[in-house]
Amino acid sequence: MSCKPVLNGVLWNLGRSLFPTEEMNYDFTRDQWRADFDAMKHLGIDKFMIFTGVPQGMNRPANDGSDMIDLIAGECDRCNMDLIIATGGHPGWSRDLEVGKEMVLVNGFVEELLKRYGHHKSFAGWYIDYEISMRFGDLHTKLRDLYKEIVLLCKEKTPDLPVIASPFFHPATETDIMRYGNHPPQEFYEYWSDMIAYSKVDAISLQDNGGQHLSFFDTSLTEPYIAAFAKACSENNCQFWGNVETGEFHIGSAREFTDKFGENGDVNYVENPFDHWRSVPMGRLQKKLEVMSKYSVLNLSWGYQVFYRPCMGDKAAVAYKDYEKYLQKNFPEMLK
Prior knowledge:
Elements (H helix, E strand, L loop, with lengths): L8 E5 L7 H7 L2 H13 L4 E6 L1 H6 L8 H11 L3 E5 L12 H19 L5 E5 L9 H21 L5 E3 L19 H15 L3 E5 L11 H16 L4 E5 L3 E3 L4 H8 L15 E3 L2 H12 L5 E3 L2 H5 L5 H17 L6
Parallel strand pairs: 1-2, 1-10, 2-3, 3-4, 4-5, 5-6, 6-7, 7-10
Antiparallel strand pairs: 8-9
């Protein structure tokens, strides 16, 4: 399977973030949200995934006092976008995961989300809010069951809506960043073949830049992993979507990262994040899109909200313009 090397959708955070997006979400006026959605629509983006921050979005009102997620759903309706919403989860779930406890929470979220937003024509799918690469032992067994139970619940409530997960991989490097381990593509293929077959998840939207979003992961490192996930999907009746990230942590090598931040260093907790994070340069983004699109049926993108969104400042506005020029040159039919 293959698709055009373009971005078809964005992932959006309505909760806490390393970046100044949380307050923007709730301070924006309706006119500002409209402009935001118009900018996305102009690029041909037709999928909007709230991948985290659902509790905040349900309970913290928008600038005008209205329901935040209802406002977003209304904009998705207006722009003919598909809205995909995370099913929720306990913060810190990996430390003490209990499937029954999580399912009580998820069931409550799913029922309330349907009650509030199910009437919107844009409501088009669910996202499993338990993001992993590979886990082992008892935690793996529980996650395997949890994925399956979430899919069963969503299919019971909304039989025709897809359920999506967005795992990540970490290419084998000379240092063991975040204790991810140096697992080859074949191990990911075997692991996710089992997860997909057991859970019956409808689509996998694979993050293309490793668990830490590091800029030195070039496509020669990542493509074997992308191919392994795509094979696992194709053999198990699951759509393979890309998650081609548009933001990255600028660093030269795994050794440089661990020397500066330690093996347990986490890019999500660095001071002065914009000293380290950047918009993915357009030439690099084009290569990432071309590689992913050899395998995917469509491409979402984590990172647009911070790094390619015009209202996020001059650098993001330039990145947006560079991508717009890429479309004008190569895929003008995408521009609306």
